[in-house]
Amino acid sequence: MRLHPLTSLAAAGSTAIMTTAAASLPLSLAVIAAVAGLSLAGGVERRMLAAAAGILVPLVASLFFLHGLFFPEGSVVLAHWGPARVTVEGLQFALERSAQLSAAVLVLLLCSFTISVPDLVAALSARGVHARFAFVLASTLTLLPAITTRLARIRQAQEARGLVITRGVFRRMAAFRWQAVPLVLSLVEEAGTRAAALEARGFGATGPRTSYREVTDPPFQRRLRMVLLLAAAAAVALRLWQPTAGA
Amino acid sequence: MAERSTPALAAGIETFVYPGETEPVLAGVELSLAAGTLTGVLGGSGSGKSTLGRLLAGWLLPGAGGALGGFLDLGGTRLLFTGKAADPRINPGSWGRVVGFVPQDSAAALSTVRETVAEELAFGLENAGVERAVMADAVRRTASLIGLAHLLDKAPETLSGGQLRRLAIGCAVISGPAVLVMDEPFASLDRAGAESLADLVRDLVKGGTAVVVLSQRVDGLLLDADTWLLLTGGTIAVTGTPAEVTAAGVLKAAGVISPRPAPGSSSVPPVPCCPDPSDPVLAAQVPVDAVPSPPALELRNVSFTYGRSKRHRFFRTGAAAAAPVLHGLSLSVGKGEIVAVTGANGAGKSTLLRHLNGLLQPTAGSVLVNGRTIGGQPAGRVSGEVGLLFQQPRDQLFERTVEREVRFGLDRHRRRPAAHGGGTGRHDGAEATAVHSALAAVGLENHSGRHPAELPASHQRLLALATVLAGRPSVLALDEPTVALDGHGLATLNSVVRSAAAEGTAVVVVTHDLEYARSIAHRLVHLDSGRLLPLAV
């Protein structure tokens, strides 16, 4: 079954909200496992891995650094250096928060890598969403792949001129400092050209629009979206009602 | 080609000045485009062609895009501009329905958020609120006109350069504009692609469209144009029929490349090919009295297939194997030899070139530079010996100024030996000299403070060439170096390539332009189905 883009968005969004609200380690781990399985099935595991590493490694490292070393409530001390104490509770807390954060980030990443952007734009336009907003949303979702392609191009140009980049994620990350400024400048430059092209093709017109693409939206998926949104709202309500649940 | 009538579009540009500039980029340009006519706007790099084209097409708006003094007349409605705030405003969407534009870089005309060729074609109609049934009809009609009917469900980003240009033309003509402006539409197209594009344009003209082709080269279609208009330094130097403009004898001085190669124009006569009977492709042209030394560049049975990385194969076993781009290919290039690799668009020429400096690693076989294999070495390390000119300058240029652009490479090549001791002051001086002499070799020494993106296309190409030359590599690999060059640029390229070869640099030129290949190379090879075949010079 092909998911309507709004169903994918609703599923990803509500899963992220529910996982965050529940703050339960088993649930977070289950979501992470499910995302990993779906990434493999969808053939996007390599892109997911690269993007997830870029976003999550620094976040998870900082969580472990903060809570692993400084957790005032911790009682079972494993090691200590001056004011810094490694406690079992601290590590446990850092693990839970990391899993929770990873689950939310991964599910949203998966959505952005697998959603059909043209379907999404068509679906939004059909619902009367302003074309510019639909385009901005679509561009945001396609930004990461576009940046990756552009980055690879700049990196190749620099390698061809003597920048030595050996294999490995960390080496590439270190080399990124050479590519950051050219990357931003080239994206800005391209945006200017693109804007002229879009305007000349009537993108700025204010009248009614039509859509060439037809996106089917079966009633079952409409109902599913409602259920997902209600479930997310319920999870948030429950969390506010019982602030300690799951923590 | 057709009877002249009321102009579909006319312009009288007294001056046009870009924001922040004082000198006008266009001055005293008048033109009138009648329905069913073909106009060639000719000129060298930096003559103002692209600015004129974008201004006519509503891609560059008077006001925000610059100060225009003069008028634009669209289908009888005249808009007067004085360069002041009270000037009329052009609605680019409404203008674009009457005047279609195909930019030099066809990909820039696409919306980037449409999944298929059909949807990309329909984008303009969607914005105009055209009914779906009418849209579907228009998409079908346009697709068959531009010869993409069989590719309607393909993703635009998978199209070849020639197909992409056709799509851009389709996007521009689907709403039936009265005027079509095309910027260098024939650049980088092979002969077959150029001929079919010329047929398409002839059909449009026959159907009543006023077509304007901006070009720095006159051949094929442009020879049939009704009017030529030669721009130099932003003003019209000559206008008239092709015969009249040619008779004025100013095309060459303006940097416009003319159709026939002037006999005897090459200062170095091509060296006759004398292939080794045992393996004609492998043989390098080694002078008879030379001391035997390894060839500067050698490819041994190189094969390459995209998407067959040696790592991460676990989840890809089910995927269909892609066809090999290079197929057990061998080539040897001696010091000081110029070898041209020809082939149609999409034959794998650029892929072959990327193997020479290690940006791509062969799936089988090996690449040797000066007798040493470069297998497994990062491209950055090979780049000191092999300089690669990319097909698109915008893929090669990334710095903020022309000077920094050339220095980037040098900086890196010198840093490695310097890391083992040695001051940097001496290197800075040597670097500055190398930067200056590389820029001087391509005639850009007076542009060192400018931003590369501000340069006209021909100068960007030459700048990219300077970045390669500055490192003084022993192998020069040039990917379609003639594309985007005007007559002056072409002359510079020829002199640079010949003097590099004379100093012992091995040169590999990849080009779709057989005429150019014959004029420059000692030896020609043809890439077809992943294999190299010798070709007579």
Kindly describe this structure:
The complex is a heterodimer of chains A (247) and B (537). Chain A is mainly alpha-helical. Chain A folds into two domains: 1-115, no CATH class; 116-203, no CATH class. The longest helix of chain A has 32 residues, at 169-200. Chain A has helices spanning 5-22, 25-42, 45-69, 88-114, 117-126, 131-159, 169-200, 219-241; strands at 77-81, 84-87. In chain A, helix 1 runs parallel beside helix 8, helix 3 packs antiparallel against helix 4 (88-114) and helix 5 (117-126) packs antiparallel against helix 6 (131-159). In chain A, strands 1-2 form a two-stranded antiparallel sheet. Chain B is α/β, with parallel strands linked by helices. Chain B has 15 helices and 20 strands. Classes of the chains: A mainly alpha (247), B alpha/beta (537). Chains A and B meet through helix 5, helix 6 and helix 7 of A and helix 2, helix 3, helix 4, helix 9 and helix 10 of B.
Structure in a nutshell:
The complex is a heterodimer of chains A (about 250) and B (about 525). Chain A has about 250 residues and is mainly α. Chain A contains 8 helices and 2 strands, in the order αααββααααα.
